[in-house]
Amino acid sequence: MKYKLSLLQAIQDETRNISLMEVCGTHTMAIARSGIRELLPSNIKLLSGPGCPVCVTSQGDIDGVLELVRKQDIILITFGDMMRVPGTGSSLEEERSRGADIRIGYSPRDALRAAQENPGKEVVFLGIGFETTTPAIGAAIEEAREDGIPNFSVFSLHKIVPPALEALFADAEIKIDGLICPGHVGAVIGLGPFEKLASQYGKPCVITGFETLDILEGIFMLLQQIQKAEARGENQYKRIVRDQGNPVAMGLINQVFETVPARWRGLGVIPASGLKLRPEYARFDARRKFDIPEMEEIPIKGCACGAVLTGKIIPTECALFGRSCTPLQPVGPCMVSHEGSCAAYYRYMPLERKK
Asked: How far is CA 87 from the centre of its chain?
């Protein structure tokens, strides 16, 4: 690795600033924890993109979930990160304190089990995540169909990554020279979508693992391409990611879900970037089952999560960061999620730079 760090220094061109964006929350935390930003030459800037599924969930979709738990006598099971995400005037944690039956689960099978144990009550799993978690949700839905479990459904907030990356590249206000692409997602979808993005927009994309050396090597590979004026999709994480991805997992996603437009915090509505249940699985779709309408998008006053998620600002440039918005009292989702950019900056930034 020493020779690669030397090459990073050699690649450094003081006359040109280079911006690379990671689009995975695990990368965001790993970069902050290991101090990679401080290690790189000063003209190489790392930006955090829309890689945290909790953070990119739109305000209207969060309010839709809150509408469900207020109006229906159900058991809602969700991942722990979602509990404290602020909606308009409330959160799932607050609704639970008021008596709603909201539980933290670790997989959709927790919700299936709860539905079997409570046959007289509807159980809803709040499905959130990218291609990484979606196959498990699809498998649970298929199991519920095969076993005839009528009181189980999913509130789908699932999203797929490539359309969001295309939206980033297409936005003239977002200056990105290359992408550190998510290893977890790459393990499912393979290298093909990233090769297509690199070719279409002339920006290198490298699927990267999560250890410090993985990330440094991924950055090195991006800089090599930039130096040679190349733009290709590459796979640094070959010990896990196959170039063809995981056809079984992709088959399950395509069997149970279909793509729809979806709202992303900071990016707006992106065509074919969301997933909803296909008509043949409609009885397991909580939105349809309980007739939850699309909720109005009401921004959180003063919150700059949208700008942070698109790399337009870094967390410390938000006026609320570390003041009225902290992990103990979060204003926006980027400070709530353990994969959020603001949480990463707050947790690992030197104390003197938080002030």
From this structure: 18
